[in-house]
Amino acid sequence: VFVMGCKKGDLDTVNPNAQTTQTFWKTADDAVKGINAVYGSLIIDGSYMRFSPIVENTRGDDATSYSPWDQIYNMGKFNMQSTGDGVLFSWTAYYQGVLRANEVLKYVPDINMDAELKKRVLGQAYFLRALYYFHLADFYKNVPMPLVPASSSADYFQKQQPQDVVWAQVISDFKAAEGMLPTTYSGLSPDGQIGRATKGAAAAYLGKTYLFTKKYTEAAAEFKSVIDMGLYSLVPNYYDNFFANNENNAESIFEVQFSRDAGGTDLGWGGDPSSGWGRTSARAITFGAASFGFTDVQPTPALYNEYLQEKTTSGGIDPRLDVTMYYNKPGEKLYNQDFAARYAGSSSLNALFCHKYENGDSGQADEYDWRSGINERLMRYADVLLMYAECLNELGQTNDAYQYIQRVRSRVGLPNLATVKPGMSQAEMRDQIGHERFLEFSLEGHRFDDIRRWGWLQDAAKLAWLKSRDPEFNTYTAGKEYLPIPLSEVQTNVGLVQNTGY
Amino acid sequence: SLQAFSKGYGQTKINVNFQNVSLKKALKEIEKKSDYRFLYNDDMLLKNDMPASLNTKDASLEEVMKIVLSNTNLNYTLSDNNLVILTEKGKAMAPGTINGKVTDETDLPMPGVTVKVKGTNVSAQTDLQGRYTLNIPDNNTGSVVLVFSFVGYASQEITVTGNSLINVQLKAASNSLNEVIVVGYGTQKKENLTGSVAVVNLKDANKRVTPDVARALQGQVAGVQVNGSGVPGEGVSIRIRGVSSLNSNNPLFIIDGVPTFEPFDFPNTDIESLQVIKDASAGAIYGFRGANGVVIITTKKGKNGPMKINYNGYAGFQKNPKTLSVTDRVGYQKIANAAETNAGLSLAPGNDPSSSKFISNVNTDWQKSGFRTGYTQSHDLGLSGGNDNMSYNVAFDYFNQTGTTVSGPSYTRYNLSGNIQGKKGIVSFGTKFAYTEGDYNNLAYPHLHGTGNQIVDLVTAIPTMPIYDPNRVGGYGGVDQNTQRAISLNIIGVNNLLNSTGQRNRMMASAWMEVDILKNLKYRISGSYDRNDFRNTYFDPIYDLGWFYPNTTAYYSDARGNYYTQLIENTLSYKLNVKKHNFEILAGTAYQKNATSNLTGVALNLPQPYLFSLDNVSNPANKTAYSNSFITKFYSPIFARINYNYDDRYLLTFNYRRDGSSQLTQQHRYGNFPGASIGWNINKEKFIHLPEAITQLKLKAGYGILGNINALSNPYPYQTIVNGNASYVFGNTLATGTTQTQVFDQTNKWEGKKTTNIGLDLSLFHDQLAFSSEYYINKITGVLLGVPIPPSVGAINTPLVNAASFTNKGIEFTVTYRSRDTGPFNYTISANASTVKNKVTSLGNGGNPIYGAYSKTAVGGEVGQLYAFKTEGIFKDAADVAAHATQTGAAPGDVKFVDTNKDGLINDADRVYLGSAIPKLYYGFNFSANYKNFDASVFIQGNYGSKIANGVYQALMTGQYTNASTDELNFWTPNNTNTTVPRPIIGDPNANNRNSDRFIQSGSYARLQTAQLGYTLPVSVLNRTHVFRSVRIYLSGQNLYTITKYKGYDPDFINDGTINRGFDYGSFPNPRTLLVGLQVGL
Asked: Chain B contact for A70, CB < 8 A?
């Protein structure tokens, strides 16, 4: 009985654990799952789960870092190495998102499905790809720009594109998204969830991209279209923009969704997603107050002082101060503890701690489970108003800018700017907008973008002023307004040029 | 001495031609040119040594002997097997009866031993009880000499002095040439081996106290490199003739015919023989799975005779042999204060003598508290015996090792195995069963902090952190954000609070049956089932270990699963002898299935007291079962081998295997792997006259091709799967996301490994001195390599592509000298040395280099060559900084990096090669001796010529908030400029601590790996007990002394062994062991 080896077919196996691309991308349901996965890249370590808020905030003069972890400590000091994890996390996260968007754009057009749904899915893919390239160009300047998923190893090595080419692609994608996305998903099926990218979000981001590339006319048109949609308004209480309550409110144009309730409990740092991953943010523990979080990022005294510059119409302190930071004031409470009592006798008693995006008022005892459910508001209506005002000023319509700025000021009870500072010149208005944005968007990651696009780093007086406000600027050298491209990319993608200064 | 050879019948015509040679030489010549063999006594020959001359053509024995013995006082008689016995004329035989018993070294009776009266053809054989009776014709027994001989045993001569009862104990012969070596699917005489097969000296190897046979190979075989850490129960990294793949390099182990890559589940004392196949000419029969070499293990089988009981046991203690010199509280505070001052920061209150929070009463020596004395013990009990029809061997084993860190890892193993062999008529069969339970306590790490390295955590922990702190949840100390400011993990606390266990339950069962269908034609079928059930638990309770390390959510995970290998093999073998042409032909097929399945459950917020039943967690949202999978792989090879020799002089082996694997696409699925080797036993050649001292001289050469896909860890590597967990959340509802997260290569095919080797075996003075040497060239093409792809691809994986090729060349020497075992003092010296030179000949993706931790692998260089910045001292002042190439962040006191590309800018392009991570030479040296009942042995092992990037030292030289090497105390200040240690500074703006030659050290070492002293109780004492057959006690020391310049814990460390092979980031140091052992035979 000489048993021969197996028959040929016995060596054919099918993976029983996962679908393949040959069996996926067939139905409308697959298309929706595919686009959901593109959003998934917003909530991993390099994006908004942790590191993007670090990259965006530490470099501004509103925040500073005394972290014992050099990847955070050096970020705001413009001292990152190309070998560091801090610059790699965001790079990998956003390219992961790009790949996922590219997959949707490749496969979904061929799916036989409801045309309107298909349009929305593709619109979201364009929106998210634009958002991811926005971050890549904003963080790293000249970057590779794959627009289709790699189908063979030859596709792995995408040429580096100059930043303006990337901006042009971002504009093109946001434009496409604007044309395809609905103003709201309310009542739609099966994608009727709140939190998806809308026409308003695409328009606002398109305007922002125009603004960043100094195309003020186009930018103004987009912002105006958002304003004219009539869908958005400032929430009466500034506080409602930064905590787990009142998420996705009338002021929110696009926000990253986090939740403590859905998904597993493992931290979804990155890598191949598993079902155990939670959908929470580690921003709160990272930025959190001493003894409740890691205190890697703290507000600067310059920010604190700037809030005190102007009193409200009722003579009070700008309410945004208390929403932004915890500090030693009578009756200050955090995590159900009395600030002064908790820090008595310690150097933290006179320190400033982040309040925005922290869970100190939620009833939680601390942030030490790492899991924050607070959504990160990326695009607020207040930002559209102030960016629109900036466009008007740059287009020489300085007087028209007042009303839009005032809507943001009035919400927090500040007096009429037209009364306090009437008839500002274009240059004065620029500084005024700088001041307004500084206070309105502190710790929201916009400040450094503003400093850079306004050319302050190249302006000796402005740079000296920044150094006086935040000593972290002392170690800024030319070129370091962009992060180094991670060494693992430079080494594998031959021909790619490292950013100046690294 | 007396020489007896036996050989088959052959031609009886003699053609010789010699002039005036000694009688002995004359007889040798006749032996060489005919099938006659002579039996004589050397003394007798010397007395009668008349020069002889002879020139014959087709002469008969009678004609020849008449001439040769003409001038002597000698007679001859022709006995069985063409044996010619020479006797002195007129010597009368002594009549009478002599009887007695022959036993082996363990006092068991030896049946079948030939007992001869010297110089006559009077002989007898022992019976089953080892007894013999010999009738001697003459009554004069005064001058009779008896010769006792048995294949594989040293012959003994006993002069009969009036005694009629003569009992003899025979000892195993030291001549290894007749040893039978197990090769793939069969056996071969060592003398006739042509492939690169090393036979491991088990006596030496087993002096190494280890539960892992792979570890016992370290330093014992030329060309086999073993590295390992001191983690109890952790496997080792084995490289046979260098790196042959960039992913999976460990060799295949064949344990009694069952293939496995996990050889560590049974006791080494259970091994009967151990061979290492190093080349493709021999290994091809194992196909792709043997591409990294094959280690063939045969376990002990029962032998004919009454039941033998053997006990082997030892117990001892282990210690970490080295302590790194690190700063104490005062030194740490000095460095941290300087670092903060240099960064323009205020002093951390805990380090500031002017602060009320200044810490002066805590000075933890983390190494002293973290390392402890570990214990190890082992007990094996073996029972064996059998008769002509059936034999059995049963073994029980217990092993335990507690490790050398406080509450750190430990390993306990229980093993039970048994085998039976039987035979009836044309059918023989065997079956084996082995069951092992291995219990591991692993190093644990807080689940929210990813993975770090416990050794680095321990040595860099700051002295101002207390070990215990009753005020913190859990009772262990931590750092305070407002006091110490440092990130420092209390790894002692972690190891006490957290719990990570592993359990392996392994069953290995096999059976075979062989049928002698016709004379010389055999059919064999064998099947095996090797199954591992595992359970890994992890528990992270609530505690507070200070800043960055609080855990507020108790976490428990329980992962269970199994993996198994099923194998069925059929072989037909045929032997054919036509005149002097000897063939052995074998052909076979196999079918193998590998399957894995697992399930993981997780619970959160366990109530206290902690009980690890998920039923105690009441909220269903707090418990999840996830991550189960089931994977299967299939292989279906056919294989064949031809062994041919002509007159034992010309040797040829041909191996072939065709492999198929389910892991490859259909068009690349099958691979053909042939191997051939030839040998020439020059000493058997009649036309070459070698000096008499040469027992064997063999030249051999081999060539073969092996395939390899062991690198494909993914069972479905070419299937472009999508991941259904790429989910998002809208509102508070999970929104399932599915997408392709990995990129796949559909062109994967077999790696090809072409091996060429030539070798020389030389044995002198009846194998007293043996020497062998081999030169090899291994060319490996299409190496499956995870070529790092740009992160901008967006994939989370690194797809394997058949990308690289490289060459390994090397030379290996082994020399063994055994003293004549005549006196009370005997000794054996053996030494081996090998070299391996690796060269990368191509790399994938257009030849882009591959960078690893501290390394760059590029075409033209070798795998894992160290690569980092070069330094040239310290900046002494601002002018010095200004004069130097632009170095961002640099200030006086910082490290000056060399602008190697002279572009005026220090950046990543200035990194250069800083040495080889592959030793130029590996060596091992064994010395063992015995005097009367004492025995002693020494084993030294080491390597020479490599460099190590010492990641632990680098971590101790950061000049920031971690504890430091005492070298750091010599840091630069404006008043201390004569130093190579830069200024400490928080944030390290100049990246002083970046990878550089500051942390690259010599990896050469020589280690006294074992020293052993034993005493065997004399037989006379044992005989009085009527219980014990043998008793030996010994003292043994391991890892006793190391000569090295390396500043880390241990130059013998473990990592991936390829791209990052030169980087030591806290490999667990190998312990020093002292133990006592006992071996008892009943």
From this structure: yes
Q: Work out the angle at residue B238's Cα, subtended by the Cα atoms of residues B234 and B240, and round it to the nearest 5 degrees.
A: 170
* Residue A233 · residue A381 · CB < 8 Å: yes
State the angle between helix axes of A163-180 and A115-140 in degrees (0 to 180), rounded to the nearest 10: 160
A78 shares its domain with A168: yes
What's the CATH code of the domain at A94? Answer: 1.25.40.390
Last residue of a domain, one of B110, B136, B169: B169
Contact B36, B80 (CB under 8 A): no
- The C-alpha angle B561, B564, B569, rounded to 5 degrees, equals 175
Q: Spell out which residues of chain B touch residue A264, defining contact as CB-CB under 8 Å.
A: 602, 624, 626
| Token representation of residue A212 | 């960043």
Hey, what amino acid is at B949? A
List CB contacts of A201: < 8 A, sequence separation 6 or more.
A127, A181, A253, A254, A379
Beta-strand runs (E) in A147-258: 160-161, 252-256
Same domain, A303 and A164: no
Task: Name the residue of chain B whose CA is nearest to A282's CA.
Answer: B448
Length of chain B: 1082
Pick from B635, B728, B784, B961 the residue to mutate for testing the A interface (most A CBs within 10 Å).
B728
Instruction: Please tell me the distance from the alpha carbon of residue B414 to that of residue B5, in angstroms, as a whole number.
Output: 46
Q: Is the peptide bond before B609 cis (omega within 30 degrees of 0)?
A: yes
Q: Residue A14 falls within a domain, yes or no?
A: no
Question: Could you identify the residue written with the tokens 């119409």?
Answer: A313
SS3 at position B695? strand
In a domain, A406, yes or no: yes
Q: Are B51 and B82 in contact (CB under 8 A)?
A: no
Q: How far is B964 from chain A, CA to nearest CA, in Å?
A: 16
H helices present in B52-160, as ranges: 61-68
Residues of B in contact with A346 (CB under 8 A): 357, 482
CATH of the domain at A399: 1.25.40.900
Minimum CA–CA partner of A150 in chain B: B793
Angle between helices A85-107 and A51-58 (to 10 degrees): 120
pLDDT of residue B143: 62
Per-residue pLDDT of B891-920, as tens digits, reads 999 999 999 999 999 999 999 999 999 999
CA–CA dist B1012, B766 (Å, integer): 28
On whether both A351 and A398 belong to a single domain, the answer is: no
By percentage, how much of chain B surpasses pLDDT 70?
Answer: 95
**How do residues A79-106 score in pLDDT, each as one tens digit?**
999 999 999 999 999 999 999 999 999 9
CATH, residue B128: 2.60.40.4130
Task: Flag the least confident range among A62-66, B131-135, B139-143.
Answer: B139-143
Range of the domain at B898: 878-910
CA dihedral angle for residue A321, residue A323, residue A325, residue A329, rounded to 10 degrees: 70
> What total of structural domains would you count in chain B?
3
Give A274's contacts in chain B (Cβ within 8 Å).
626-627, 725
Structural domain includes residue A468 = no
Asked casually if ipTM beats, i.e. exceeds, 0.90, the reply is yes
Q: Domain span at residue A393?
A: 380-456
At A194, phi and psi to the nearest 5?
-75, 145
Pair (A318, A388) in one structural domain: no
In a domain, A174, yes or no: yes
Is B778 inside a domain boundary? no
Residue for token digits 């882009």? Answer: B848
B336 lies in some domain: no
The 3-state DSSP composition of chain B as helix, strand, coil percent (nearest 5) reads: 15, 45, 40
CATH of the domain at B36: 3.55.50.30
**For chain A, what is the domain count?**
3
This prediction has a pTM of 0.84
Q: Provide CB contacts within 8 A for A305, sequence distance 6+.
A: none
C-alpha distances (whole Å) from A334 to each of A288, A297, A301, A304 are 11, 17, 19, 18
